[in-house]
Amino acid sequence: MIADTILIDLPTENQLLNFSERLALAMTPPKVLTFSGEIGAGKTTLIRALLRRIGINDKIKSPTFSLVESYQLTAAITIHHFDLYRIHDISELDDLGFRDYFTENAICLIEWPERGLEYINYVDLAVSLLIKGQGRTLQIVAQSDIGMATLKLIGGV
């Protein structure tokens, strides 16, 4: 199993937002990223910044209540932003058609993946945000060959 890890200290929110630019350079489908961390750690902030850097100009809504928000990057590429925080019963993911979103032309960004682990077949990068004083520490773990290539692109390994 592939598992290379990088740690990145981001003492300010600006540095967190700037990191999204590095990550955006590596966003090509198919790709699955998970985002873990306590409430307020910056998962949604990082994903919103990433979506902006990728080129999403539409209003970016948090999928906290809808569970998923999808964005058409190009005619061929769709980005799906999931927030599984409000999942109380794993069968809710069936109702959502969760597995149908993971296609060759999709980039899937999943907050609170631990609420749906049984339904997430693979992950390329697992991103954990840890609160460190006023800043954050990012732990990024590559869990696939695609994830490893992504770490190289963002300057991690």
In total, the number of strands is: 7
Order of adjacent strands in the largest pleated sheet: 1-7-6-2-5-4-3
> What CATH architecture would you give?
3-Layer(aba) Sandwich
Major β-sheet annotation: 7 strands, mixed
- CATH class term: Alpha Beta
Low-pLDDT residue spans: none
Number of helices: 4
Radius of gyration: 15 Å
Distance between the termini: 17 Å
Q: Which class of secondary structure composition applies to the elements? A: alpha/beta
Output the CATH topology.
Rossmann fold
Shape: globular
Name of the CATH homologous superfamily: P-loop containing nucleotide triphosphate hydrolases
Number of structural domains = 1
Looking at this protein, list some descriptive labels.
7-stranded mixed β-sheet; 7 strands; Rossmann fold; 157 residues; globular; 4 helices; alpha/beta
Give an account of the 3D structure.
The model has no long low-confidence stretch (mean pLDDT 91). The chain is of the alpha/beta class. A 7-stranded mixed beta sheet has the order 1-7-6-2-5-4-3. The chain has helices spanning 13-24, 43-54, 91-96, 145-153; strands at 4-10, 31-36, 68-72, 78-83, 106-111, 125-132, 135-142. It has one domain (4-153): 3-Layer(aba) Sandwich (Rossmann fold). The radius of gyration is 15 Å and the shape is globular. The longest helix has 12 residues, at 13-24. The two termini are 17 Å apart. Helix 3 links the parallel strand 4 (78-83) and strand 5.
